[in-house]
Amino acid sequence: MVNSVTADPAKCVDCGQLPFVIKRDGSWMYRGSPIGRKPMVCLFSTVLQRAEDGTYLLETPAERGRIEVEDVPFVAVELEWCGHGRQQTLCFRTNVDECITAGREHPIRIRHDLLSCEPTPYLHVRDGKGQFPIEARINRATYYELVALAEPGMVRGRKVLGVWSDGVFFSLGDLSSCDVTK
User: Fold this and answer.
1) C-alpha angle with apex 1: 40 to 19, nearest 5 degrees?
2) Tens of pLDDT, residues 108-140
3) CATH class of residue range 9-69
4) What's the count of helices (H) and strands (E) in the chain, helices before strands?
5) DSSP letter at 71?
6) pLDDT tens-digit readout, 36-58
């Protein structure tokens, strides 16, 4: 699939559904077997795209095909930070060793499970071709590091706990009315 041949995008061959699956834990599978060579996964990750309809594609100048992604294709596995408050910068390393600084171009968002209300944090890695971005799920240990850095703030008139990065405040969740941070 990965090909360094430069071709006219209009002549890009559609290969249909490819036998790749990116599991929720960030592991890449090919025909049901894990891709064990990290450099190969990193190479495939560079040609990963998101179509306007939200589907994921592996796309080179010569060919493209759809792949299955259980949640999001990447996992943020490590956090480095410097500064405090508005001057704080949060840099995440993904499972494919890409470093992304949270900010206006790379926001953090929290999705809550409908049944358990448990938060799942995500980081915008890069834009897709439509409204759907390519994201990394922030793993639990890294999320706990974020929570340790959090401070109270206000978002749309609500008291929240959040973090600053690159001059942007990201809410991690509402503060309860019985909060003891007074």
Assistant:
1) 85
2) 999 988 888 888 999 999 999 989 999 999 999
3) alpha beta
4) 2, 15
5) S
6) 999 999 999 999 999 999 999 99
Token pair 């990201």 is found at: 170
Domains 9-69 and 74-174 share a fold: no
CB neighbour class for 14 (10 Å; exposed up to 12, middle 13-18, buried from 19): exposed
- Residue 10's pLDDT band (boundaries 50, 70, 90)? low
Q: 57, 66 in Cβ contact below 8 A?
A: yes
What pLDDT shows up at residue 9?
55
How far apart (Å, rounded) are the C-alpha atoms in residues 179 and 1? 53
Nearest to 76 by CA among 39, 101, 104, 113: 101
The residue ranges of every structural domain in the chain are 9-69, 74-174
The CA distance from 65 to 182, in Å, is: 54
Q: Please, are residues 160 and 174 in contact by the beta-carbon 8 Å criterion?
A: yes
Chain centroid to CA 77: how far?
11
74-174 maps to CATH 2.30.270.10: yes
- How far, in Å, CA of 115 to CA of 7, rounded? 47
